TrEMBL record:
The keyword ATP-binding applies. PANTHER family: NUCLEOSIDE DIPHOSPHATE KINASE. This is Nucleoside diphosphate kinase. Its EC number is 2.7.4.6. It comes from Mycetocola miduiensis. PROSITE patterns: NDPK, NDPK_LIKE.
Length: 137
């Protein structure tokens, strides 16, 4: 079942020159890069992207972090890629993410600051459709 997902390389991943490494892992898994852009998003895009987290204690630091530098947005296609990319990324908290995953191998947990966990991946077909429309409108 071929799906598409939105992957974001967050500002920490771009700033740490991990874009190539992350793209390499996506391609090595057999997924295809359908579209890719380097973006400095408007606040309105991030507010829509993270609407489900509005009001949570980490929401404002998260949005501030996502505005701190360029982001790479990628439309990725492949069989069960929505679930598959989240397995490649590892669990949200980089300290707990398994070695071998992007977050487990490279992510850093900066204590009280938002977890700088390098990547975003859509978490369901509905989120993927909504987020791809938002970032690739
Ligand atoms: P993402 O949406 O970025 O792919 O990550 P996720 O599904 O694994 O995590 P989610 O729960 O959707 O949270 C979105 C992002 O918010 C930051 N976060 N900080 N307790 C905290 O400080 C906290 N919890 C979440 C992370 O950057 C997370 O990726
Ligand atoms: Mg999420």
């Amino acid at each position: 079942m071929v799906e598409e997902t939105l992957v974001l390389i967050k500002p920490d991943g771009v700033a740490r020159n991990l874009t190539g490494e992350i793209l390499r892992r996506i391609e090595a898994k057999g997924y295809s890069l359908v579209d890719i852009r380097l973006v400095e998003p408007e606040l309105s895009i991030l507010a829509a992207h993270y609407a489900e987290h509005e009001g949570k204690p980490f929401y404002e630091p998260l949005v501030e972090f996502m505005l701190s530098g360029p982001i790479v947005a990628i439309r990725v296609a492949g069989d069960r890629v929505i679930e598959g990319f989240r397995m490649l990324a590892g669990t949200t908290d980089p300290t707990l993410a398994a070695p071998g995953t992007i977050r487990g191998d490279f992510g850093r947990d900066w204590g009280l600051k938002v977890q700088q966990n390098l990547v975003h991946g859509s978490d369901s077909p509905e989120s993927a459709a909504r987020e791809l429309e938002l970032w690739f409108a």
